[in-house]
């Protein structure tokens, strides 16, 4: 059995986002011998791009499963078009109002009438409600992607490794309290010097923190025969640590991990040495035996992706591919594509921003 995983370019300038397409099964055979999955849809404009890409390279308008990892605008908004215009069998979508009395009451009165919520959260919750309504109208079943949920077929399995429902419900009260970073904190991040790094010298730390919404991301593992591919959304270290615990509990074979998405467009807030050692092994690995992709806008550096982060993956034996305005593909036992070339991967940068 083969697979293809495509990362489409999402965002322009300094904006980044995620739209990931999966296809696995007999990729040389008929559509009925394959499973096609869309994981996140980028911004509004990316919905049509997903449809065009599926038509050109997967030759289908039928989607077995759509997965919304979390409701940030750069992940969820393009899914409106996907659900509306394509034939979709199933939707994995968290419904926060079913797990919070506070959010249920606010939803009843309309998100626009909830001034206590920051504007971005109101828009994100409205997007969830809109996807739920589209699915209801079109008769698309919704399943919340909590740990243990699977999409099974004879060609492979997509497993939700996190979050657990309990972890998700612990995060929800933080959604409404989180107000983002202040102007001073954002300004200080711009004032960065440069520090050296090598295959053994690492300046990335375990001190990064991301938002509660990012930590609520569904993290999924595709298992095709003896290979595993991990998609992380925007999950941060607490979420990734819990995911690793869940995978250990079901006897996951970490040596099968061939591919991993770099979380949150390569932000240094989401990963650190400890969690990367757990997923990929220790630093100092010279052979690039694994592949990692990061979705980042063409002008989003140095934040997306941060060189400290891409270096951390390189020194743990990963080839690092970056979208930066173009689609990138990782596959196995898949037909060649005309005009597509091999990714060189990002280098191990000798100097990195010390912000």
Features:
alpha/beta; seven-stranded mixed sheet
Provide structural commentary.
The chain has eleven helices and 18 strands. The protein is α/β, with parallel strands linked by helices. The chain has a single domain, classed as Ribonuclease Z/Hydroxyacylglutathione hydrolase-like (Metallo-beta-lactamase, Chain A). The strands form four sheets. A seven-stranded mixed β-sheet has the order 8-7-5-3-2-1-17. Strands 9-10-12-13-14-15-16 form a seven-stranded mixed β-sheet.
Q: How would you summarize the topology of this molecule?
A:
Layout: E1 2-7, E2 19-25, E3 34-41, H1 46-58, E4 62-63, E5 65-67, H2 73-76, H3 79-85, E6 87-88, E7 91-92, H4 101-109, H5 119-138, E8 142-143, E9 150-153, E10 156-162, H6 165-177, H7 183-190, E11 193-196, H8 212-215, E12 219-224, E13 227-231, H9 237-249, E14 257-261, H10 273-280, E15 285-294, H11 307-314, E16 316-322, E17 328-332, E18 351-354
Helix pairs in contact: 1-3, 3-5
């Amino acid at each position: 059995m083969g697979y293809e995983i495509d990362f489409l370019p999402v965002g322009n300038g300094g904006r980044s986002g995620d739209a990931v397409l999966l296809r696995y099964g007999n990729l040389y055979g008929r559509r009925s011998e394959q499973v096609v999955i869309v994981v996140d849809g980028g911004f509004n404009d990316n919905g049509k791009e997903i449809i065009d890409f599926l038509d050109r390279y997967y030759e289908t308008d039928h989607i077995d499963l759509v997965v919304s990892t979390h409701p940030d605008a750069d992940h969820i908004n393009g899914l409106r078009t996907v659900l509306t215009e394509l034939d979709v069998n199933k939707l994995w979508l968290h419904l926060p109002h079913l797990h919070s009395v506070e959010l249920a009451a606010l939803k009843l009165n309309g998100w626009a009438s909830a001034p206590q919520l920051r504007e971005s959260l109101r828009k994100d919750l409205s997007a969830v409600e809109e996807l739920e309504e589209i699915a209801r109208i079109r008769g698309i079943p919704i399943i919340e992607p909590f740990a243990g949920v699977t999409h099974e077929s004879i060609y492979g399995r997509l497993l939700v490794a996190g979050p657990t429902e309990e972890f998700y419900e612990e995060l929800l009260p933080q959604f409404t309290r989180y107000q983002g970073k202040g102007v001073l904190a954002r300004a200080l991040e711009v004032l960065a010097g440069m520090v050296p790094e090598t295959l053994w010298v690492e300046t990335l730390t375990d001190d990064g923190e991301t938002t509660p919404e990012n930590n609520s991301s569904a993290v999924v593992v595709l298992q095709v025969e003896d290979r595993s591919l991990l998609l992380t959304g925007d999950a941060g270290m607490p979420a990734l640590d819990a995911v690793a615990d869940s995978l250990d509990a079901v006897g996951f074979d970490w040596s099968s991990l061939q591919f991993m998405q770099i979380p949150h467009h390569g932000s240094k807030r989401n990963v650190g040495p400890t969690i990367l050692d757990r997923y990929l092994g220790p630093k100092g690995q010279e052979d690039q035996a694994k592949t990692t992709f990061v979705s980042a806008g063409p002008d989003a550096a140095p934040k997306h992706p941060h060189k400290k982060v891409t270096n951390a993956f390189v020194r743990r034996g990963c080839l690092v591919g970056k979208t930066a305005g173009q689609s990138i593909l990782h596959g196995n036992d898949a037909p060649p594509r005309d005009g597509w070339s091999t990714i060189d991967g990002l280098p191990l940068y000798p100097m990195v921003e010390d912000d």
